Amino acid sequence: xxxxxxxxxxxxxxxxxxxxGSEDIPAINHVSLSIREGEFVAFVxxxxxxxxxxxxxxxxxxNPTSGKLSLDGRVVVDEGRVLSESALxxxxxxxxxxxxxxxxxxxxxxxxENVLLPFTFYxxxxxxxEVGRILKLLGIDHRKDxxxxxxxxxxxxxxxxxxxxxxxxxxxxxxxPTGNLDTRRSEEIGELLKGLNRREGxxxxxxxxxxxLANIADRIIELRDxxxxxxxxxxxxxx
Length: 239
Ligand SMILES: Nc1ncnc2c1ncn2[C@@H]1O[C@H](COP(=O)(O)OP(=O)(O)OP(=O)(O)O)[C@@H](O)[C@H]1O
Ligand SMILES: [Mg+2]
Hints:
Elements: E1 7-20, E2 23-36, E3 40-44, H1 51-58, E4 66-71, E5 74-78, E6 81-82, H2 85-95, E7 96-99, H3 111-115, H4 127-137, H5 153-165, E8 171-175, H6 183-200, E9 203-207, H7 211-214, E10 219-224, E11 227-233
Parallel strand pairs: 3-9, 3-10, 7-8, 8-9
Antiparallel strand pairs: 1-2, 1-4, 4-5, 5-6, 10-11
Helix pairs in contact: 5-6
The structure holds adenosine-5'-triphosphate and magnesium ion.
């Protein structure tokens, strides 16, 4: 990543207000940011500070109440005007890979079948070869015929990462990907994400409570009360 890499995600003045009964909950308060291709950005902040809400909006899983979001120079939402649901589905599929704290693996499908899940509704030539490459890259190819119940938590998260990568996303979005893992496994997943960023040039947006994990990112954005409170750049960042 360099300062001249193209901007892949640009958010301007995002606001999200949730309504609970008669109460208005301002979850995101006027957030603007841009992320360049190949950046590794971590969002941190206390519970309830808006991390999940924000990355769900950035990842087109939720709409902002107001503000503008562009991906790859294309406006996805602007002051309440949103792309059609089918166009959004395509954006989600073509631009993003998602990883969540709960791995969301299908227990009755093998590792390989879980990774191929994104292709259930549309076939892609070469998918079977690609799954082999990705399982190897993540160090779980020897588990490909196992069921999720037969592998460890760290391995399950690797399978979820493999599934997120099978579509060759431009941006990997990860919300607390190590929240269900012990320290050792968390570090392994951190190393893996860092490797994907460095070696494959994958843009990564990570949410985490874990300071050690946040520190592997190039840039750390701290949220408080739904707003950007502080931003810092890692010293090990490449120019
Ligand atoms: N669907 C919803 N309806 C109403 N309020 C919500 C909804 N989702 C989130 N909120 C509120 O918005 C605020 C931000 O929540 P969010 O889940 O984004 O925080 P977070 O930083 O991800 O927290 P955590 O670290 O606990 O995951 C909180 O006050 C939360 O209660
Ligand atoms: Mg959250």
